[in-house]
């Protein structure tokens, strides 16, 4: 397999093979192929879906899972199960939150394949203006692995004293929201680049600004032009080929895609993106992502301090026999890709942040295990 050059080695030998689209099953066009689940414990699956959708308001919780809005399960390229909450539906776009990070990773791959970006460098003018700025050593590869070394506080709620010390809230909702990347690039180094993993939405918006600059070839271009060019690239190279008609990316006042957090789409359209990664970046015979790019996304690098998962290239990776990896967002948004079972699961909802990751993790694990029960293993 061809791999893109960078500062790290992708350990493809340990990865579960990505399955091709089954013979006779078309890629989704205007509509998805619909089928019945195969080899599934349907009684358990139905019970778990019923449990997940038992709550009909945000104030009511179901075993800590909170409010489920959308669930789509794709097996063998067909939708085999689907459920929506009272305020959702197959045509209702919902926010991605940090699932957008995985879309940002896809855009980088396209630009690397085009020769417009290099994983071994991060062309951020701010870091190169001052002589001997140590941040100039940060690479795009390290940014995608969340190993830039930049200081960042990814906090979403008050601490025990009632204070909120949060870079992400300031960047997305405070004064810094007018230019998210400019806020993030000003952060100093807390660690040497490449040495320490720190999950950071600011890091992703730096990447998003690098994407925009690569597309316009002029960092001083007017914000409206940067946004228009980036939107066109996303539409022509990703959304249109996948048929993601509902996709609605949001931009800041500087014309940068808020790739950390703000994309809207329907659950079915998020499932198209998951299917693209399940099919190794190939869609209906056309390669959209460079060869080896999905393997970079799903190669584990840094273990999480919070739960049983690892971080790859802007995707979360799970130590399970089926090779699961996930685009993940605040309040339990998820696109789960399970190569060993030819499975994609999209879950959208409002799980209280204070409940931690366990309710959503266990819900998704139960869904996966209904397809292939395996005793005592994470995610099936």
Provide a compact summary of the structure.
30% of the residues lie in helices and 14% in strands. It is of the alpha+beta class.
Structural overview:
The radius of gyration is 20 Å and the shape is globular. By secondary structure, the chain is an alpha+beta fold. Helix 1 (42-52) runs antiparallel to helix 11 (358-371) and helix 7 (201-216) packs across helix 8. A hairpin with a 6-residue loop joins strand 8 and strand 9. It contains 11 helices and 13 strands. The chain has an 8-stranded antiparallel beta sheet with strand order 2-1-13-12-11-10-9-8, with helices on both faces. Helices cover 30% and strands 14% of the residues. It has 2 domains: 1-92 and 266-375, DD-peptidase/beta-lactamase superfamily (Beta-lactamase, 3-Layer(aba) Sandwich); 94-263, Beta-lactamase (3-Layer(aba) Sandwich).
Identify the CATH architecture of the largest domain: 3-Layer(aba) Sandwich
Residue ranges: pLDDT <50 for 5 or more in a row? 1-13, 374-380
Cα gyration radius (Å):
20 Å
Q: The biggest beta sheet, please?
A: 8 strands, antiparallel
Strand arrangement within the widest β-sheet reads 2-1-13-12-11-10-9-8
Reading off the top of the CATH hierarchy, the class of the largest domain is best stated as Alpha Beta
Keywords:
single chain, 380 residues, alpha+beta, Beta-lactamase, 2 domains, 8-stranded antiparallel beta sheet, 3-stranded antiparallel beta sheet, 13 strands, globular, disordered N terminus, disordered C terminus
């Amino acid at each position: 397999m061809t791999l893109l050059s960078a500062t790290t080695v992708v350990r493809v030998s340990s990865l579960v093979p990505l399955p091709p689209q089954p013979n006779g099953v078309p890629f989704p066009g205007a509509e998805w192929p619909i089928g019945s689940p195969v080899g599934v414990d349907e009684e358990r699956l139905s019970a778990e879906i019923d449990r997940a959708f038992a709550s009909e308001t945000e104030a009511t919780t179901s075993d800590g899972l909170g409010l489920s809005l959308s669930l789509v399960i794709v097996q063998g390229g067909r939708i085999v199960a689907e459920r929506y909450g009272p305020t959702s539906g197959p045509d209702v776009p919902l926010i991605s939150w940090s699932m957008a990070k995985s879309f940002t990773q896809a855009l980088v791959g396209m630009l690397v394949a085009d020769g417009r970006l290099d994983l071994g460098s991060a062309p951020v003018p701010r870091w190169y203006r001052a002589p001997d700025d140590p941040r100039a050593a940060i690479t795009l590869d390290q940014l995608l692995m969340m190993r830039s070394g930049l200081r960042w506080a990814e906090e979403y709620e008050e601490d025990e004293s009632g204070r909120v010390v949060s870079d992400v809230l300031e960047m997305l909702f405070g004064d810094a929201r007018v230019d998210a990347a400019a806020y993030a690039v000003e952060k100093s180094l807390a660690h040497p680049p490449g040495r320490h993993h720190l999950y950071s939405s600011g890091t992703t918006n730096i990447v998003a600004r690098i994407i925009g600059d690569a597309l316009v070839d002029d960092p001083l271009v007017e914000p409206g032009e940067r946004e228009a060019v980036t939107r066109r690239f996303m539409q022509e190279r990703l959304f249109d080929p996948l048929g993601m008609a509902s996709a609605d990316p949001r931009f800041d006042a500087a014309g940068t895609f808020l790739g950390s957090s703000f994309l809207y789409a329907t659950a079915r359209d998020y499932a198209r993106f998951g299917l693209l990664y399940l099919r190794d970046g190939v869609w209906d015979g056309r390669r959209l992502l460079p060869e080896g790019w999905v393997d970079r996304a799903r190669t584990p690098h840094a273990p999480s301090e919070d739960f049983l998962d690892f971080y790859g290239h802007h995707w979360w990776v799970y130590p399970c026999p089926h090779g699961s990896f996930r685009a993940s967002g605040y309040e339990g948004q998820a696109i789960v890709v399970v190569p060993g079972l030819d499975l994609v699961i999209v879950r959208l909802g409002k799980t209280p942040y204070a409940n931690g990751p366990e309710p959503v993790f266990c819900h998704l694990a139960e869904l996966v295990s209904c397809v292939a029960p395996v005793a005592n293993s994470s995610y099936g």
